[in-house]
């Protein structure tokens, strides 16, 4: 059986016809009681650069099978990380084939080729406990269903998992240290050049002398001449030879991304924290701030009209028409906003006028039923919400869940009272379904 999930070959193609003057042992003369599958794996990730290549693993284990008289009936390989459970299709199929009785043994270079996580290791040990998997042969070791062998197998695979976990911690620590030194870990944006020649931990970022002056002009044109992103795009395309690293004309989205990137002013964010760069800024902080103010988008409206926060997100619960709003000014000077049906579908719709304060209370009530983690992950307000949560946790003597609920309630009240229209609608997007205004209540369908 040749499995095509990864790469397969027959053992006979890999073995020499003779070794040390002796003919190669045939399957008939081999230990036919156990049928083996040779499994070879290598990840493309940095943590496995020192591992043998897949072809080398197959060659070495094929020779070992010949020396020990093992009957190998199939060879399977894949290039995939073993950090996550159940993510390797070739291994998953191999486990299923062992359970079906197709193989009773596995031949592999080392235990960490099979598993670097607890889930896959548990599946393999379970096969041994159930009697489906009788032996695992590696380079220099044999593991059977014997308790001591299984214990040693688990120790070696657990050690590989520990190495992975520690390596992840060390990588994060190294990235944090690099940020504190003033250098963002990932690739520098257009206008800068990464240092590929200095030693590890000594690499710096240099200004691209060819592109930096034009990038500075881009910011100046927006801040001082009032150019839009589209105007900058046309200018770059038609009047300059400014190109990406691949030699392509910049897209409009890339232009806007550049204009919003604080890296050019000498500071950057990484994992939600701000850092001051140790490289040469292309523009000043004042120029960057001026561009951000120019880039603020004010919704266009017809003269005499106003954009309200909750229009276009509600529908009438009576007739299904849209919901509009209008502002009323009382004799006392007090201002109130009322929402009501447009009556586009039913001119006689009896939907009553509803004050904006009632709309807000209804929306907050719906959002309070949404898990705090969902709101943090589903909106751009995660950092603000986390600050509210931490502050409430410090002040609250209640349980953690009560503290989180209190933080969410305070946060929602703050955003709907002080936040922008975009922030309010960002929160509302967490409510899945169409919102209908039915008298003084909001219903989700």
Structure overview:
The protein has 445 residues and is of the alpha/beta class. Helix content is 40%, strand content 17%. It contains 14 helices and 17 strands. The strands form 6 sheets. The protein has a 5-stranded mixed beta sheet with strand order 4-3-5-6-7. A hairpin with a 2-residue loop joins strand 10 and strand 11. Residues 1-10 and 15-32 have low confidence and may be disordered.
Main sheet specs: 5 strands, mixed
What do we call the CATH topology of the largest domain?
Answer: Rossmann fold
Distance between the termini: 53 Å
Number of strands: 17
Characterize the overall form.
Answer: extended
Ranges where pLDDT stays below 50 over 5 or more residues in a row are 1-10, 15-32
What CATH first level of the largest domain would be assigned? Answer: Alpha Beta
Backbone structural class? alpha/beta
Strand order of the main beta sheet, please?
Answer: 4-3-5-6-7
Could you say what the CATH architecture of the largest domain is? 3-Layer(aba) Sandwich
Q: Write down the Rg.
A: 32 Å
The average pLDDT score comes to 80
Approximate strand percentage: 15-25%
| CATH homologous superfamily descriptor of the largest domain | Resolvase, N-terminal catalytic domain
As a percent range, the share of helical residues equals: 40-55%
Helical element count? 14
Counted up, domains total 3
């Amino acid at each position: 059986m040749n499995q095509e999930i990864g790469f397969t070959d027959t053992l006979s193609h890999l073995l020499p016809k003779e070794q040390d003057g002796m003919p190669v042992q045939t399957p008939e003369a081999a230990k036919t009681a156990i049928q083996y599958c040779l499994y070879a794996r290598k990840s493309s990730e940095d943590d496995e650069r020192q591992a043998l290549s897949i072809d080398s693993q197959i060659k070495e284990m094929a020779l070992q099978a010949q020396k020990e008289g093992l009957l190998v009936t199939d060879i399977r390989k894949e290039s995939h990380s073993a950090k996550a459970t159940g993510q390797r299709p070739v291994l998953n199929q191999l486990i299923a084939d062992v359970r079906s009785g197709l193989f009773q043994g596995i031949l592999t270079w080392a235990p960490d080729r099979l598993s670097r996580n607890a889930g896959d290791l548990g599946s393999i040990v379970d096969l041994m406990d159930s009697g489906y998997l009788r032996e695992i042969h590696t380079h220099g070791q044999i593991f059977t269903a014997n308790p001591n062998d299984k214990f040693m197998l688990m120790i070696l695979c657990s050690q590989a998992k520990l190495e992975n976990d520690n390596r992840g911690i060390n990588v994060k620590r190294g990235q944090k240290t690099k940020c504190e030194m003033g250098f963002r870990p990932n690739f520098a944006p257009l206008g800068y050049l990464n240092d590929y020649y200095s030693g590890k931990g000594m690499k710096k970022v240099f200004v691209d002398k060819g592109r930096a002056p034009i990038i500075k002009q881009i910011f100046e044109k927006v801040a001082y001449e009032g150019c839009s992103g589209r105007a900058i795009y046309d200018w770059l395309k038609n009047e300059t030879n400014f190109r990406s690293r691949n030699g392509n004309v910049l897209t409009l989205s890339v232009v806007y991304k550049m204009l919003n990137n604080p890296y050019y002013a000498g500071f950057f964010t990484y994992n939600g924290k701000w850092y001051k760069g140790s490289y040469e800024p292309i523009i000043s902080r004042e120029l960057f701030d001026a561009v951000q103010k120019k880039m603020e988008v004010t919704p266009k409206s017809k003269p005499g009209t106003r954009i309200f926060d909750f229009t276009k997100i509600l529908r009438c619960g009576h007739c299904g028409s849209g919901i509009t709003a209008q502002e009323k000014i009382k004799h006392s000077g007090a201002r109130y906003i009322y929402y009501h049906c447009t009556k586009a579908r039913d001119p006689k719709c009896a939907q009553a006028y509803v004050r904006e304060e009632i709309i807000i209370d209804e929306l907050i009530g719906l959002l309070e039923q949404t898990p705090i983690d969902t709101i943090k992950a589903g909106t751009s307000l995660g950092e603000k919400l986390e600050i509210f949560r931490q502050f409430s946790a410090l002040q609250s003597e209640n349980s953690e869940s009560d503290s989180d609920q209190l933080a969410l309630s305070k946060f929602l009240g703050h955003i709907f009272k002080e936040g922008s229209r975009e922030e309010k609608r960002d929160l509302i997007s967490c409510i899945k379904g169409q919102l209908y205004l039915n008298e003084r209540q909001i219903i989700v369908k």
